[in-house]
Every structure is written in structure tokens, then in C-alpha cells.
Specification:
CATH superfamily of the largest domain: Dihydrodipicolinate Reductase, domain 2
Number of domains: 2
CATH class of the largest domain: Alpha Beta
Bound molecules: NADP nicotinamide-adenine-dinucleotide phosphate
Radius of gyration: 21 Å
Order of helices and strands: EHHEEHEHEHEHEHHHHEHEEEEHEEEHH
Structural class: alpha/beta
Helix content: 25-40%
Largest sheet: 7 strands, mixed
Number of strands: 15
Length: 376
């Protein structure tokens, strides 16, 4: 690499456009923080003729993402396309050619993370994905750096803004169809909301966090999940009368054999941090053996908050390039998980709403002894 790092940005949609704008217009500040100069060698999009925001006029758009990744002047590839189709092929191609990669793509890490980490490690480059779990909340770094000397026992949280927005609208009286339409109008829900409302998106984030927190090679198809589409207005009103809200909670705990892990709608007390969000806010509780319980809340989605996490990863990756060493986070080999058992199956139920487990933070403390055995 010469003394200017080359960056390839793949995708310029909700997240990518915010990343592009900041890379192009806040170069001085970002270079100062990175300690290295950079050039944006290209921005790959699907449709090069599509009108873009005014502040991206003159940006180096291209439709040929493969050629951009192959450009010998590119040191760092930032993937903001999404999904596991071309994004996967491009990320593998980039790692294989010795480029470091930053991605916001939870589907990718949740389903191919263990393999991609191994590929990055074998090429001596880094794979960073702070934005992929809970948007702007720096949970990946927190698990990977700040708590690296501890042992994570369990974690749980509200990680899908679409579900929170729909359930909140139903608490205000809307029925499911109207609440979904409202969430779509606010930009929280996709035109096809199934990945969100069926619990798949939260399961992706949970798989990604399990990989980091427990060092286990767990991919999201192994995690049991149920969504929110069957929840009735009556159940929501009843929960409110009893002092609860229904929230889609993703939870995992380390066990000697692997982990307990599940995504399901549960009853959460109305004053609990998991019940406070009305839209894209996420809340995650982590229990570490020595640090104890820690709670993280913040914007889990949205173009600018997600781009903030992507830019943080870019600055860290640039610092690694500056020092001619890779900070190779997330490259430690993962262990096999023999058993991934459901989390909520045996939990207490409220007699008036027996379909839903009752959330209690001490559920995350209970497996401490199991976890201690798992780590011993
Ligand atoms: N949106 C959020 O709040 C959020 C939050 C956390 C994580 N994420 C993750 O961030 C990633 C991006 O999400 P997004 O919401 O920004 O998606 P998006 O708005 O749909 O943007 C996707 C971008 O990828 C481009 N693209 C699609 N196929 C391509 C290809 N084959 N080659 C080159 N470019 C291609 C599209 O080009 P055109 O512009 O030409 O169509 C578009 O610019 C996803 O992995 C998502 O899960 C998003």
C-alpha cells in the first residue's frame, strides 16, 4: 500500500449514502482521526443512472463492483449492499484478495460469519461489522474489546425496530395491519416485512452476538424464533392492564454444551428498559461473569446512526493500515456448539396470558454457574 489508503464502497442506499457523504465531505476530520490519507476509489451501485442526493454529485459511481474490488489500489472494502447474494460473493472476493472489509450486513455475518472470519484470518486482514448488530450501539466492540478479559454469561435484548414500532402502535389502539402500514410509512418496515415480523432479523443479530460473546460458531438457522404476526390487540391491551408490554426479545445464555438461544415475543414489565422503545431504539442487557450486568440502549437502525457505526469501523481499519498491521478483530477461531437449546421453553408464564414467557433480568443471571463450568 502507498501512503494513501484506497476505499471501495459497495452500495449507496439508506446506509451507504450516509457513509459516502461523510467519507467525501468530512475527509479532513476522518483522516486526522485515522492518521492516514484515503481516497474513495469508487462507489458501486446497481443502477448508475438513479438520481442520487445532491451532495453526492460527481461521486465516482460504478456498476462494476467486481472490478472495483479487484482494483489493486483498494485496501479497504465497505459493503453496504445487504443480503447473502452478490454481497457475499463480493466480500469473499475482497477478503481473498487481501482487502480488509467493513460491513453493515447482519444476514451475511449471521449465516456465513464463522467461515468469513476464518477467511479473513487466513489472509491476515480484518472483518469488522459493528453496524450489523443493533446499529449505532457499539455492542460488537464492547463484547470484543472492553469485555475481552471477562466471560460473557448471557445476553438479551430488543433488537428489531420494526417489531417495536408495530407493537407500540397496537398499544395505542391500531390493529396489526394498520400498525404495519404505519411502520412502513415511517420507514421502519421494509415493503416485505417478513424478515422482521417473523423474528429472522432478530435471530440474525442474536447469532452474530453469540459468535462474539461466547466464541461459538452458531449460525442463525440454528436459533428457534417466533414472530409477532399472531399477537392480538386484545392480548396487547390485557398485557398493558397487567402492567406489561409485549416485546420481541432475543436471548442467549452460555451452557457447557453450547448455548440456550431463542427469539420470541415475551411479557416485559412496562418500566423495564426493553419496554421503553417505540421504534428503532434497541436495548441490550449483557451479563458478564466479573463485570456483572450492563445495559446498552440507542438507535438500532436508520441511515445516519448505522453509518456512524460503519464510519467507526472504517477509522479503526484505516488506523490498522497506517500501522501496517492489522488489528484483526473478530479473527479468533470459533468453537463448535454441540447444542443450541430454546431459551424460553421452561420459563414462568402469566396465568392470564400463558402464551408468553414472563421476562425477568434474573433469567440472565441464573445460568452463571453453568457458564462458569462452560468457561472453566
Ligand atoms: N437501513 C438500516 O437502518 C440498516 C440498519 C442496520 C444495518 N443495515 C444493513 O445495511 C445494509 C444496507 O442496507 P440499506 O438499508 O442501506 O439498503 P438499501 O437502501 O436497499 O441500499 C442497497 C444499496 O446496494 C446497491 N446494490 C444492490 N445490489 C448491488 C450490486 N449487485 N452491486 C452494487 N450495488 C448494489 C443498491 O444500488 P441502487 O442504489 O442502484 O439501487 C443500493 O445503493 C444491509 O445489510 C442492512 O441489513 C441497515
Amino acid at each position: 500500500m502507498d501512503c494513501t489508503a484506497g476505499i471501495a464502497l459497495l452500495g449507496c442506499g439508506t446506509v451507504g449514502a450516509n457513509v459516502a457523504r461523510r467519507l467525501l465531505h468530512e475527509r479532513d476530520a476522518l483522516e486526522r482521526r485515522s492518521g492516514i490519507r484515503y481516497d474513495v476509489r469508487g462507489i458501486a451501485v446497481r443502477d448508475a443512472e438513479k438520481p442520487r442526493r445532491d451532495d453526492l454529485g460527481g461521486a465516482p459511481f460504478t456498476r462494476d463492483a467486481r472490478a472495483l474490488v479487484d482494483d489493486a489500489r483498494v485496501d479497504l472494502v465497505v459493503e453496504c449492499i445487504g443480503g447473502t447474494g452478490e454481497a457475499l460473493e463480493l466480500v469473499e472476493r475482497a477478503l481473498d484478495r487481501g482487502r480488509s472489509v467493513v460491513t453493515a450486513n447482519k444476514d451475511l455475518i449471521a449465516t456465513h460469519g464463522p467461515r468469513l472470519r476464518a477467511l479473513a484470518a487466513s489472509r491476515g486482514v480484518s472483518l469488522r461489522y459493528e453496524a450489523a448488530a443493533c446499529g449505532a450501539i457499539p455492542i460488537v466492540r464492547m463484547l470484543d474489546d472492553a469485555l475481552a478479559g471477562d466471560a460473557i454469561v448471557a445476553l438479551a435484548g430488543v433488537m428489531n425496530g420494526t417489531c417495536t414500532a408495530i407493537l407500540s402502535a397496537m398499544e395505542a389502539g391500531a390493529d396489526y395491519a394498520d400498525a404495519l402500514a404505519h411502520a412502513q410509512a415511517c420507514g421502519y418496515a421494509e415493503a416485505d416485512p417478513s424478515a422482521d415480523v417473523d423474528g429472522d432479523d432478530a435471530a440474525h443479530k442474536l447469532a452474530l452476538l453469540i459468535q462474539l460473546a461466547f466464541g461459538l460458531a452458531v449460525i442463525s438457522p440454528r436459533i428457534r424464533r417466533s414472530g409477532i404476526a399472531q399477537i392480538t390487540k386484545r392480548e396487547i391491551a390485557r398485557a398493558q392492564m397487567l402492567g406489561y408490554r409485549i416485546r420481541l426479545v432475543a436471548a442467549a445464555a452460555r451452557t457447557p454444551q453450547g448455548a440456550l438461544a431463542e427469539v420470541a415475543p415475551v411479557l416485559v414489565r412496562a418500566d423495564h428498559p426493553f419496554a421503553q422503545g417505540r421504534g428503532p431504539e434497541n436495548a441490550v442487557r449483557v451479563v458478564a461473569r466479573d463485570a456483572g450486568g450492563l445495559v446498552f440502549t440507542g438507535n438500532g437502525a436508520g441511515g445516519a446512526p448505522t453509518a456512524s457505526a460503519v464510519l467507526g469501523d472504517i477509522v479503526t481499519a484505516l488506523r490498522g493500515l497506517r500501522e501496517h498491521r492489522d488489528l484483526a478483530a473478530h479473527a479468533l477461531p470459533l468453537d463448535a456448539a454441540l447444542e443450541i437449546a430454546p431459551f424460553f421453553a421452561e420459563l414462568p408464564r402469566h396465568s392470564e396470558l400463558p402464551r408468553y414467557a414472563l421476562w425477568d433480568d434474573t433469567l440472565l443471571d441464573a445460568p452463571v454457574s453453568l457458564a462458569s463450568q462452560a468457561y472453566s
